[in-house]
Amino acid sequence: MEKSEFEKLEKIIDDVLLCPKEEQKDRIKELCGGDSELQKQAEELLESIHDSETFLDDQKKNLKSFLDDIPDTEAPPETEESDFTPETYGFYTTTGKIDQGGMGIVYKGKRSDGEFEREVAIKVLNRRLVSENWEKRFKQEKVILASLEHPNIAKLYDAGISERNRPYLVMEYVRGMSLKEYIQKEEPELKECLAKFKEICEAIEYAHRNLIVHRDIKPQNVLINEQGRVKVLDFGIAKIISEELSEEEVIQTMESGRLLSLSYAAPEQINMGKITVATDVYALGLVLYEMIAREKPFDLSGKTLQQAEKIILNRETENISAKAKVKLKTIDAKDLDAIVSKCLRKEPEYRYSSVRELLNDLESLQKKKPVAARKNTRRYKTEKFLKRNKYQLSVAATFLVAIVTFGIIYSVNITKEKNRALEALSRAKMVSDVMVNVFEEVDYTTTEDPRLATSRFLDESLAMVEYKFGDVPGEKARLLLNFGSIKFNLGELQTADSLLNESASILRSLEEDNEYRYWLADVYNKKADLARAMGQDRIALNYADSLQQFLENNEEEIRNLEIVPLDWQAYLLTSKSYKAEVFTYLGEYEKADSLYNEIFDGYAARKDTMSDAYWVSRHDHGWLLYDKGEYEKAISTFEEVIEARTEGYENGRRHYTPTKVAGAHASMAWALHMQGESDKAEEHSRYSLDLYNDIFGSKRSIDRAKAMNDLGIIIQKQGKYEEARELIEKAYYMRKDLLGDTHPLTLTSEGNMGLVYFYDDQKEKALEWFIKAHQSNVKVKGETHPDHLRELSNIGAVYMQLGKNEQATKYFEKALSIGEQFYDTTNVIYRRTLSAYNSIK
């Protein structure tokens, strides 16, 4: 049988199997259109299907072929067939057929109940491809798969069982081309191939973190939309890894997963073995191979099923560098070979254990760092180090300088008392010995990132602190405090918290005449800072109170310390600054204002208005002015902060960093945005994001996420919806991954997701996000927080746009009630809410 004939027969049978049994023969006759030979073949195949309880295996034996040998269907154009009859699936109605294959039929559709407009793709699954307990499993998977929210995953909106007993999935409709078509038409170079492939990996890695394995990754299941973004499809047939399901259930939903895409099947799928994340890693390796080589690693065309399976199970792939159709000059070809080969190992346990590990190696490949897939020899690591990481030598040299400095610091702290001097020198030697030993053990050639080298250095040091300083608790506590502070700066917040808690416990246990116990002031200071970073504002306020109380109770002793001198007044101003910042966030503006007046008077009395700490407080005061609706004063303050921080950074003053310059520009952008000066706002916002991109590159960062989010909101108002949507979505998922679901910044992003849909005229979707954001904020901040003015006003605005004035009025009244408690009539959001309310009253 020719492939074209088989393709026609296969599509007819797939269509017929979706019909009730009593209608199937009539449907065959209709589809064959008078071709008696084709009709006879179709009827014979249909009869064999009904006679066999193992349809899939029989189909393979009878036809001596398999679906993957048929030319792949490329995201075909939408068709409106003359004989097409619309059907309803849940709230959605089909408007045309998009594609048809072994899994079922894909239709284009739209929402049919009139609630809101939404263009969708409806996949009606082949009923014969689901297992006996499919209804229970289908309901399970519907809930879990619908929860997948990632910019590179086509969203599942709905799923269910139709009135005609057909399983269906309603998915995001993606305009674009398949990855296979993209490769053939665009012929992307290596950089673009790797960029698109990494987007695919990010989607799969996200699904794995949600306990879902895709199982059918292939170029046909990856679309490139009109904006150039990757969208991975068909998570609707993914297997769920869960202890609640038996191994038999996990591998059973399709009676033969091999029939899905044999050319992309892993060896364990051929052997009906256990399906894990390693199965997806294998398929990803095949996809990467095809993207770079422009062909599949195994040619299965014309092979019988048994021959194809033998190739997959036994034949090794040729090195991708030998088959590459793109230039590999910018990377180490041997490293690329190693990465792909590791993905394609026959044994799952020898592949990458996670997609994140694969992504890490791809990052290393592009940066010419050592890749984990290569043998971890010292010669290989050193070669990489010498080629690209020359400045890493300066990291090592810095640690050596730090070791010497430890001794010097202690020496200058020698007091007039000889025994105290000897004690200090002894402790300095102990610290130095620890650092030298660790330095000799740690291999800094394994990374070009000084932050990672620092973290590893500290981890090794901590392992030695316990037995080296077991009998010197004060020094041990101080080391733990310093290490905790560095871990905090590296973004390792949980580790920092643990180290600070251990340090505090030791310091509290010291006798009253032990000067080291006064380092509790620094512990409280760092704990407050840590709590703010983690979004725990009430806890931060408690630590700020504890710091202030500790300082006031021990003022005389702290001012007279010799071994561990502390700046009493500086710490007192810091404690007040934390409290003022938290009061601002909590909407207690009078308390915050009063504290800022005390703070600025304190810095003036110290003649310390050039310090970074002073400008941190000025910057935070700018946000208080902003939150009170005094935008012009806030803008003036941010201008001063930008000027001071830029000058301080250019002159090399301590603590004046590029991140703080970027932060000041971001604040200015937002204040200008609220004043309606969109062009100036965009200019400052883009400058801020550029700085953060220079600092962090492609790495996830809280500051970078904020800059993306703010720029998205600003340009959205200018009608730049596509760029805005991309920025805001990236920021939301970055915050969610870094900070969790209940962090204040994540909650802010929920509201901003609502704005994305609101300005894109998807009002129902916007309403869902606005309500979700408000409910989340109420749980975290309570019922009467001033931020609820914006949230409630947004909900009311959507209802107003939908013509539901009764609901809009209710939410506007709630918003105005909040506004009257915290704002005056000059507040922009309050004025807009009042105007909207009056217009419908």
Main attributes?
841 residues, alpha+beta, Phosphorylase Kinase, domain 1, Transferase(Phosphotransferase), domain 1, six-stranded antiparallel β-sheet, three-stranded antiparallel β-sheet, 36 helices, 62% helix, globular, Kinase-like_dom_sf
Task: Quickly describe the structure.
The chain is of the alpha+beta class.
Describe this structure in words.
A hairpin with a 4-residue loop joins strand 9 (222-225) and strand 10 (230-232). The chain is globular. The strands form three sheets. It has a six-stranded antiparallel β-sheet with strand order 1-2-3-4-6-5. Strands 7-9-10 form a three-stranded antiparallel β-sheet. Among the domains are: 3-172, Phosphorylase Kinase, domain 1, CATH 3.30.200.20; 176-374, Transferase(Phosphotransferase), domain 1; 747-840, Alpha Horseshoe (Serine Threonine Protein Phosphatase 5, Tetratricopeptide repeat). By secondary structure, it is α+β, with helices and mostly antiparallel strands.
